[in-house]
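Recall the central idea of this unit: under ordinary conditions, the amino acid sequence of a chain determines the structure it adopts. In this exercise we apply that idea directly, starting from the sequence alone.
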Amino acid sequence: MIVSLDTLLVFVPAALALNLTPGNDMLFCLGQGMKSGPRAGVAASFGVALGGFIHVLAAAFGLAALLAAHPGAFAVLRWAGVAYLVWLAVQALRGPGLVWAPEPGRGYTPRRAFREAVLVNVLNPKVAVFILAFLPQFVDPARGSGFVQFLVLGTVFNAGGTVVNALVGGFAGRIGVWLRGRERVARAFTRLTGFLFLGLAARLAFERP
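Accordingly, the structure predicted from this sequence is:
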C-alpha cells in the first residue's frame, strides 16, 4: 500500500474537515445551483474536482512551487481568476432570472456550469499553494514514489470535496426548483448569485497571498 493506513486515518478526517469548511469552491457550486438548478450545481462540483486534480498534477510536477516562488506569476493567475469571476457576476446581474429550460445558444446548462467551475478553480492560485502546503505533510519518501503518493492523497481530498460540493449544489438547486413560477423572488436570487460571484472575486483579490 503506497500510503499507509495510519497516514490515511489522520489525513482523511483532516481533509474532510477542510472540505466542510465554506470556501470559494463551495460558494461557487451554491451559486450555480441557485442560478440554474440541481444538475448545474452537481455538475459544478465535478468541475471543481477536475480543476482541483489539475492543481494536484501541477503541484506534483513542481508548477505550484514555481507559483509560490515567483509573486509575478502568482499575481497574473490570481487576477485572471478575479476577472473571470467578475465576468460571471456581470452575466448573472444582467440576466433575466433563473432559467429552467435553456434555449439553444444561451448556455445555461450543466455542461457550462462544469466548464465554468473548472476555469474558476484552475485560475485560483491559492488552491495550488494550499495543495502544495497541505499534501506533502502526508507523503512518506520511505514508502516509494512521492509523486504517486501525492496523486493518491489528492484524489482522496478531491473525492471528499466533490461529495460535499455536490450536496451543496444539489440543495441550492432544490431551492431554485421551489422558486419556479415566483418570478420576482427568482430574479432576486439571480441577482444574489451575481453578488455572490462578486464576493468571491473580492475575496480572491484582497486576501493576502
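The chain has nine helices and no strands.
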